[in-house]
Model the fold of this input.
Amino acid sequence: MPNNYFGEVFFGVEASDSFASALNDAFHALEPKWQNGIFTGDNLITFGKNLSFQLDAPFMQALETHATKKIEKSIVWRTAMLVWAARNGLRREGALVECGCYRGISARIICDSVDFNATGRDYYLYDLFDYPEGSAHAAMPDMGPSLYDEVVERFSAIPRARIIKGFIPDILHVQAPEKIAFLHIDMNGVAAEIGALDVLFERVSPGGMVVLDDYGYLPYRAQRDAERAWFAQRGYDVMELPTSQGLVIK
Ligand SMILES: C[S@@+](CC[C@H](N)C(=O)[O-])C[C@H]1O[C@@H](n2cnc3c(N)ncnc32)[C@H](O)[C@@H]1O
Done:
């Protein structure tokens, strides 16, 4: 039987105690056989699901090792989708790429889950890492002068990870792979994400995977609309996943 998975972080909840208590009441109202497979977190509430990611031993081990913050544990389903996309993308030619790696947690989990060192591929991880006063990009709690070195250290056991500090799209014209098997775009900004697609999508191998983070989150509606239109112009329909990611298989 599946286990329940209780992530604690939801976005947009003001009174977290009363929210948690209401959820608890709701789950107690379920018939016993539906009280398994409960998932909470990352604005997803489900019950009676298989939650198959919990049966993925390398993934759960990698999550345990690298996801140290509540938010990183709560977005487990999202991260499982990335692992799925990376695994399937690896059936195609090319590198793995993340535009907006921040602390590098999801990419590090992917590395362990797919045994990345055995793939013979490169992993390109781009970010600004720092947040100088007045920057246009959104601030994140761990951004700062030491974040780049922390991420380099996190990938010290992954020799073919390339941690690249630079502004997207500009840096992509300087350093980017010729072929891509898996592309994860997660920069929380329309111009940067469309800029990345403009340069990188043509390099994604046929059958390669593209995951657009936050595509389904209402506060990022402008990003979703711009990406939906960008892909529609090229004949693709983006799938909005319940995990709030957008998925395109080239
Ligand atoms: C939400 S975080 C990424 C989280 C990460 N993908 C993960 O899975 O943990 C967004 C990141 O995008 C980066 N970013 C935003 N605009 C950027 C740009 N134009 N070029 C490079 N990185 C950018 C920020 O520095 C930030 O670290």
In short: The chain has eight helices and ten strands. The pocket of S-adenosylmethionine is lined by residues 98, 100-103, 105-106, 126-128, 137, 140, 167-168, 186-189, 192 (CB under 6 Å). The two ends are 35 Å apart (CA to CA).
